[in-house]
Amino acid sequence: MLPENLKKELQDRIAAVDHPRELVVDVLFALQAHYGFVTDEAVEEAAGLLGMTPMEVDEVATFYTFVYRRPVGKYVIHVCDSVICWLEGGRSLQEYLSQKLSIAPGETTADGLFTLLPVCCIGYCDRAPAMLINKKVYGPLTPETIDQLLDELREAH
What we know:
The structure is a single chain. This protein folds into two domains: 4-63, Orthogonal Bundle (Arc Repressor Mutant, subunit A); 75-156, Glutaredoxin (3-Layer(aba) Sandwich), CATH 3.40.30.10. Helix content is 48%, strand content 11%. It has helices spanning 4-15, 24-35, 40-50, 54-63, 83-87, 90-101, 143-156, and strands spanning 75-80, 114-119, 131-133, 136-138. The chain has a four-stranded mixed sheet, covered by helices on one side. It is elongated. The two termini are 28 Å apart.
C-alpha cells in the first residue's frame, strides 16, 4: 500500500496540471522508486490517481525502457545495442557481460545485484560501445573496463 505522504505528494502534483495523463510516466517512476519496480498494485494505484484504466497505465509502463514491470537488481545495466555500438564492438561486449554475469539479457543475477537489459540506442555514440548502469553512462567499453567496473560495484555493495 502506498504511504499517505507519497500519495498526497502525487495527488498534489496531479491536481496542479490541466491534463493529469501527462504525468503518467512521472507517477510510474515515483511508484517504481517506492516498490522497486512497477507492481500490478502500482499500476492500479497509478490508474486511480490519474483517472485512467489500469490497461492504459500498463501500456505506458511496458513501452518505456526505464519503467520496470518485473523486479530488477540493485544495478540495472542497459547495454546499447544500436548499430554504432555494434560497429564498435558492442555486440561482443554484450555477450561478454552476459557470460561474466552468468545471465542472459533480461535476467538478474542470483544475488540480485545486476540486471542486464539491452536497449536500442542510449545516445552516447561518441562513447561507443557504451552502457548505462543506473542511468550513468560508461564508455567506450572494453572487457577490461567492464571487469573493473563490475568489481567496483561488487565492492561497493
